[in-house]
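I am sending you the entry underneath: sequence plus fold tokens. Let me know what the token row says about the fold:
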Amino acid sequence: RVVELDEGGVTTSEGQAYAMLRAVWANDRETFEAVWGWTKAHLQIREDRLLAWRFKDRVLDRNAATDADQDAALALVLASRRFGEPRFLDEARGLLADIWAKEVVTVGGRPFPTGGNWAPAERFPTVHVAYLAPYAYEVFAGVDPSRPWKALVRSSYDLLRFLYVERGLALPPDVVFLDPRAGAILLDRPGGAGPAPSSYDAVPIFWRVAVDARWFGRRGEADLRERMLRAPREAWRSEGRLRDRATAAGRPLSDLDGLPLLA
């Protein structure tokens, strides 16, 4: 298991999925089998095939996190190809069935990946921006054609365009929300608390968009990727570092804060 020493020695489904991806990319079947075997035995313990997200000596939270489930499913698909093991593809398809059934909601005629199995029951379902993984949805479409995974590719870029083009943000917030009745994406948190901050929790979206461009081309989103890179590029040029966190109004939350979320 992957032990997070900065979090008191916990193990998360996210960390396990990252280890699986690294192992398959490194062509290390022994490590892949060990990590996936531990994950199945200790985290795949729900009534479905999703992964309980937090563990230390025992499962601390049975809820699932969509990013980990997606990354684990992708690792299984890739492992089935690299290691020539059909069992991994069967396990990936089982995981994909429950991801679609329990972690995806349709709003305004578009499916969106939510934060986890708990989110679809919310009045305004939570979407973690960093969980959007268009390259994975493209791969899933090839192995699970019974579900419209490619629609998630489009809705992922629709959501990013909402943030960067329609709302003119310089950095992505950690989370946004969906309004099922209006069929809309909401930037402000329910209850009038304003937008969520932009922190390290949002950072993976830059990597995920970059992987999608490398694997599947520009998709006509070159201008969007340029908008996404402006604030980090400017910060690096002016300060030689990237800040840990930012707020919508530009008010710092700690000594590490600084970049305004809004352009």
In short: The longest helix spans residues 86-103.
